[in-house]
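pasting for the record
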Amino acid sequence: MKVIRVIPIAKGIGRETLSYFTGAEVTIGNIVKVPLRNRIISGLIVAIENAEDLKASIKTLDYEIRRVEKVHAEAGLPESFIATCAKTAEISFTTTGAILSAMTPAFLLDGSVVKKLSRIHEMHAGKDVICEKLSIQADDEERFSHYKSLIREDFAKKRSVFLCVPSIQDIETVREALEKGIEQYTYTLTSQTDGLKLKKVWKEIAQNSHSLLLIGTPHFLPVFRDDIGTIIIERENAKGYYLRERPYSDTRLFTEIFAEKLGARLIVGDALLRTETIWRTKTNEFHEYAPLKFRSLSTATIHKIDMRAYSEAGGKKFSVLSEESHTLISDTKAKSEHCFVFCARRGLSPSTVCSDCGTTVACTTCGAPTVLHGKTGKDVGTQNFFMCHRCGEKRSAREVCVYCGGWRLKPLGIGIDSVEVEIKKQHPDATIFTLDKDRVKTHEQAKQIVRAFEHTPGSILLGTEMALPYLTFKIESSIIASLDSFFAIPDFRIGERIMQILIKLRSVTADQFLLQTRNPDAKLLDYGLKGNLIDFYKDEISEREQFLYPPFRTIIKLTLEGTRDRVSNLIAEAKQLFAPYTPDVFPAFLSMRKGQVAMNMLIKTDPKKSDPQLTSLINSLSPEWNVSVNPESLL
């Protein structure tokens, strides 16, 4: 009988390893099925000891060691991958098992794809070796041209390339751009692929002796190959690289560490790299594969419309769309062209306030401001309604102010539904397609809508940010109907987000690009409309240095959810515990049940210095705390 220590491959487990009995023949690295409370989970064996030698210590335990349920003797994971999970867990203040659970394809844990079929990269046995890190900042066409050169270079050296992307649509876009001439050596890996087909592809990849181009999300990095020479992180600035649930880590960090463990070359590329990445390039942590392009080019004629004119003070009646926008839409139909209209928010209006007392109409469940929706799409024939985009609560808009009882509730802001209503009113014969989260739930639905738009001359596509990755072809005209609401978001990354939107739309617009704004003097808008990336970067890095944001500080966000009393008590204790680090505490913008609250605590640390005391304090917190490092959003 043996006692094995395993890393539990599951989320929400506070311990790094657990112990179990087994009489089976096992080796370090085997995958096993073990009981944990009332469920069965996968575990990775990291130590084996003889039970007889531990007899005395076992008797003193205040808990019972349980037996292993099943051993997958031939199943295993590359040591380099396991070492990457351990290093990522250390940086992210979580367990190795939580990272393994998030980053390992499920079928690798059930024994159906076994180690003996693979060619696992163990050359460096998880040790850090020299890793060349290069950056590319250029438009899509030039960037993909560089990737083709990199792939040819690696293929000539009999090495494979793994190209990481943030979404399924990006997989399709990249494959179409890069696979010409190497179709039989190109594989895509996506979580939406049927399980049996995915296993078949995985085995083909492991057994193919030729160099390969592998395109997928970072979750498929433990691919069974021993010849990965280059790892590319495409669209490096995309927020899709953040994990949306525990352990809330950044898969770009994971990918960089994995490249270090393999000794593979790491390439990061985007039209606009993250500010942190440009800084790392300028401080020689990364090197330029080609000179970074700080001027984004476009063939479109740019128009900026001051929407302040459409007010009582401006002398014109309020309108969702300007006269110039309506003219552009009319021309689109007359010339059988295409027009994309971008809207920052869903619904009719992002917020509604009482004209008498100023109270904002809020969700009765979580307290977030509600969005006014109207009679569009599947809701045609119904009354307007308020919907909370945080928790999903929905109720009729026929109500009065909850504070003063007033009936003068005034919608504020522009949503995609109000733009649709305006276009249908002024252009009743227009063919309109709409792409947002309220109407589109799957990748295939989004593709069908964009395909129909592309093949319908004279049509208009309304879309939020969700639509942008699907715009892979040139469009004659684009209109930004609303963007100003983003300036009100108190988040240090919001400037990058606005620039990404402007650069993307400029790049896909062939003729006319029109921006509506009530903030025409904002420097950020000028930078985006002119494709001026260098001055944007200078302003952004200066502000981050002034206010101590990444890359000058590491931000650790601690989030706690629960009843108001419990959260208040635990936050008070945590403020005392972390007092030497002067934490900032504020409400979190999260979806909560009625009676529940969420609070954030921010701690800033020097990224150049290790702090064992802080690590110990964070690791001592109960599992109900969520920890994220340099998160996508501080809210």
